[in-house]
Amino acid sequence: MTIKLKGVVFDMDGVIIESEHTHYQAICEAMGDVMDQSYETFLCKCTGGDERFAMGRLAELSGIEYDESLFQEWSRKKAVTYRRLVSESAKAMPGAVELVCSVAEKFPVGLATGSRRSDVDAAFEVLADGRLKGVFQSIVTSDDVEHPKPDPSTYARAVDGLGVPPQNCLAIDDSPNGVSSAKKAGMKVLGITAIHDISSLQEAEWHLHSLEEVNLEDLINLFEKLN
Fold first, then answer.
1. CA 204, chain centre distance (Å)
2. What ranges make up the beta strands (E) of 78-187?
């Protein structure tokens, strides 16, 4: 029997919002000049998890010794800076807002992100003039799970919030850790290759460079073929 699509869970950064550089800028301001890693290093080695993972990797690569109190100080500064930056220049990924809204007309949609809840709220206040506020039935952030991606808990909780079995859900993510998280949660995955290439997202069943290349009917048809 064909397994039909009944829900879609989206990653946020790099899938819905063009925000990786915004996160990097905010982290740079929070950590200060002692953090000397480039944006390219940040993309390659520090994304796909939560900000604790990102800052920890950047500190390690920069030779910075830090403890929990310093991380919490960086996190507070980063949240304030991110809110300011995203309010000035929030930009949706091509085709993302349109696809989310069209999918939400037919299926429940979820969000599974390594960002903090405050970052999600700040982005949705301004992104596409607030069109995505209230659209997601289930939102799981790094504040909601003990173990971030690639652990399956982020996607597993997002799917559970939709009330749909994971085998009937499609995940859309752009990072190796995100794809791994969704696969471990029992989902089929569409990998977005705007930042990471196909070789880094091999676990995904399907790959596209941009959500401009797909619509709701494409998702439904593809999902049925994958099953």
1. 15
2. 109-112, 138-140, 169-173
